[in-house]
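User: Hi! Is it possible to get a structure for several chains at once, not just one? Here's what I have:
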Amino acid sequence: MPTDVSAPLPDLDLRDQSILTVDTGDANAIITKLVIHVSQDIPAEALAQLPPLLAHIPVGA
Amino acid sequence: MSSGATAPAGTGPRTIVLPGTGTQTRSYTLPPGIYQYVQSVLVHVDATAAPAVRPTLRVKEQSGVVIATKRQGQPIPSGDTGTATWALRLVDEPSGPGPNADCTLGYQGVGADVPRVFGTVTGDPDVTPNRTYAPLTLTWKFTAGRSIFASVANHEGYDINAILARAVICNLATGAFQIIVGNNVVVPANSTATLDWTFQTSGAALLNLAAPLLPTVFVTGIYAISVSINVSP
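Assistant: Yes, the chains can be modeled jointly so their relative placement is included. Here is the combined structure:
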């Protein structure tokens, strides 16, 4: 009977071309499928239009 | 750069499904020029020909630096198939010692007549060559659902003899005995597991759970036997 296990996903703000790798840890345990669920894609140039959320705000500005 | 697949830039799939490559690893590279917030990762694993496994998720940034790893707390049992999921807002499943956590049973000196029990280490024993020894029994208990498999480790400075063992599980509730065949068995709740050790004169240290052998005389020399049982959740 198939066994399902689960664990928390590290909540990371990943840049593009970051790599997610799953390793079973044993050469005889084969990964038959990988499924990634992601939020809506946002083009990088769209993000560049937004002001930096944590930018330093000069006094008097 | 990993051999993982990459989603085409500019597309907006919510779910990326990739077939396996027939190996123990699989990767996915976030596409260039696109921001994707990963919400879950799931793998289907075929461990029918493998020991119990606890898959690990590894996250690298673009530079190749590993920035996070997360191992599953529970295993996919040996001989089974299953899935491993990593998702936001999940909590860790209870875990115990990993597959390679040694629970050293102690030393059985060749020359000692009293079996060592779990957790007891009495130091390097005196050994007497050319003696015949009766099988010894080591007993321990596990909590429900724990799988056991045994390995034999060499003791530094000694020539280790071959060790052949048979593992037997006794269900304390029913009194039923089960002789373990194979190297990875889930011990039911409320059970004891007994490992009957026997010895032979030569060969590399190995564990044979298929059938016990009668003890024989040791050749002249010094022997020490160190035994560890690996317990996986």
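Chain A touches chain B through 46 residues (CB under 8 Å). The first strand of chain A starts at residue 3 and ends at 8.

User: Great, thank you!
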